[in-house]
Amino acid sequence: MRACTYITALTILTALVLSAAPKASAAQVFPIQIAQAACVLGDTVHLGEIAAPAGQYDANDWNRLAGIRLWAAPASHGQQLVINRNRLREFITQAMGNSAVDLRLPDSLTIRRGGRVVGKAEIQNDIVEFLTPTLQKFDGEIELSQLNAPDYFFLDDSGDTLVVSKVSDINPGRVTVRVASTTMDGRETSKINVSFQIAQWKQVPIATRPLKAGEGINTATMVAFKRMDISKLDGKPWDGEGGPWRIHKSIGAGGIFYADNLEHKPLIARGDKVDIIFQSNNIRLATRGVAQTDAALGATILVMNLDTQRQISGVVSNNGVVTVQ
Q: Would residue 242 be called left, alpha or beta, if left means φ above 0 and alpha means ψ between -120 and 50 degrees?
């Protein structure tokens, strides 16, 4: 990036008026908006290079005003001149003489020799266009906010383009992208980082009442849904599907059902009364027992035989049934 030399307004503007301004009719008052930033090519700054009509106007009259010569431009390519609001009013009013205008001034004006200035709206539009293909891959409602694009950005050459690229992976949450002035052969001559917030709004399951660890989930009575920005959550919320589930850690009323806090509800849970089936080639005996552990269908489980008070292992063959072979 070419270094920019900043020149004080007082130094450049001591020789202000290079030509007399044409006179305007007293009845004709032009509202003129002075830009925050502008690029000039020649040795002299003209009103039309730093301003635009702010309301209804006669094209011929504006062309006449736009040609008013104001002050000397920065000497070399890339140099910048910053002028504050009070100086702007003083210098422009003096240069325009008897022209009746309503000046609308920014806090300051930055003039650059050469290049092209890009406004905030164009920067934002380019960022949104860059992000759109990625954001379309996310489900839910996507919202972009807190986009802190600068009010303006200078491209080093009038033929350069504004190119947006990612700094890191783009996901919901706080994101930063790079905005660069890029030459036709792909070189970056100047660049800035722009950050913003990507919100991902979805319906998130929450508990309708306090739930204890190990408690099974009845979706009809224990679950409600609330619209939330999931980029601000502490984990991935449960999608409300699958099951049967139970809670791994207790949650309070209104608490979020996170996916990693759910576990499959076992077919037999510790403490459940079960039927113990003793199965051999020619013999089948049944008795009652109590599960000592949790187990899913087909899993090995330890049970207490209520008749003998002895612990034995078997396989869960059905809901509430343990087979011992």
A: left
Closest CA to 82 of 166, 173, 175, 13: 13
Please, are residues 152 and 37 in contact by the beta-carbon 8 Å criterion?
yes
Residue 93 tokens read as: 């009013």
Identify residue 45 by its one-letter amino acid code: V
* Tens digits of pLDDT across the chain (325 residues): 343 433 344 344 434 434 444 444 444 577 899 999 999 999 999 999 999 998 877 888 888 889 999 999 999 999 999 999 999 999 998 888 766 678 899 999 999 999 999 999 999 999 999 999 999 999 999 999 998 899 999 999 989 999 999 998 999 999 999 999 999 898 998 999 999 999 999 999 999 999 999 888 999 999 999 999 999 999 999 998 888 899 999 999 999 999 999 988 888 888 999 999 998 888 889 999 999 998 988 889 999 999 999 999 999 999 899 999 8
Non-local (6+) Cβ contacts of 249 within 8 A are 213, 261
CA angle 206, 209, 212 (to 5 degrees): 95
Task: Tell me how crowded residue 236 is: count the other CB atoms within 10 A of its CB.
Answer: 10
Report how far residue 287's alpha carbon sits from residue 280's, in angstroms, rounded to the nearest whole number. Answer: 15
Nearest to 168 by CA among 126, 198, 211: 198
CA distances 75 to 34, 115, 324, Å, are 22, 14, 96
Residues pairing with 272 in the sheet? none
* CB contact burial 189-225 (16+ within 10 A = b; e otherwise): bbeeebebbbbbebebbbbeeebeebeebeeeebbee
What is the token pair recorded at 281?
């080639």
One-letter amino acid for residue 200 of the chain: Q
